[in-house]
Amino acid sequence: MPAPSLRLSRFAMAVLAGVALSACGALDSSTSRLASSLTPHRPPIVQGNFVSREQAEQLKPGMSRQQVREILGTPLVSSLFHADRWDYVFTLRRQGRPEQSHHLTVYFRGDALDRFEADKLPTESEFADQIDTRRRTARVPVLEATEAQLQRFERPGAPAAPVPVQPPASASYPPLESSAVR
């Protein structure tokens, strides 16, 4: 049987936990609205093979399957039943925004690219801007100085070039390589 002080501390912890839990149910409407508006951060989720507009513009009829694979990567969907068709699909899910889905289908005739069909694909910079969720409200300061501002920092008689700093004379360093070779 536990010691009386241990039993008392367990009882006190149980009472405190009960009080804390009962306080959770006593939220008024404004506090509950505030609590419901706070949501955890959900990072953007990209699924599938991202294909940019720049990549699709590099595709030319007559290219080999290997050349297409070097430009677009391995297709997300390739089927034995449709050996002359590769599908590239990617979706972007972001918090508070509708899901975006993009699709590119490449058709081959034998080993050569015949044609391709695509949704309106984003450019690489557009896609990067969609993923970057940092707020850009801060203004970038102008990095220009007038002649009057520059003259405030000039000292009359100051040397034009910086003076090199010499190491202290008392510094001694060990040799970089050992002279004894085995």
TrEMBL record:
Record note on quaternary structure: Part of the Bam complex.
Could you identify this protein by its name? Answer: Outer membrane protein assembly factor BamE
**Free-text function comment from the UniProt entry:** Part of the outer membrane protein assembly complex, which is involved in assembly and insertion of beta-barrel proteins into the outer membrane.
**Single GO term (MF):** protein-macromolecule adaptor activity
Q: Which segment of the chain is annotated as a signal peptide?
A: 1-25
Recorded source organism is Ramlibacter aurantiacus
Which part of the chain is the Outer membrane protein assembly factor BamE domain?
Answer: 48-117
Q: How would you describe this protein's topology in the membrane?
A: Lipid-anchor
What are the UniProt keywords, alphabetically? Cell outer membrane, Lipoprotein, Membrane, Palmitate, Signal
Protein family membership:
Belongs to the BamE family.
Q: Fetch the HAMAP family from UniProt.
A: OM_assembly_BamE
**Cellular localisation:** Cell outer membrane
- Which GO BP terms apply? Gram-negative-bacterium-type cell outer membrane assembly; protein insertion into membrane
GO CC term (a single one): Bam protein complex
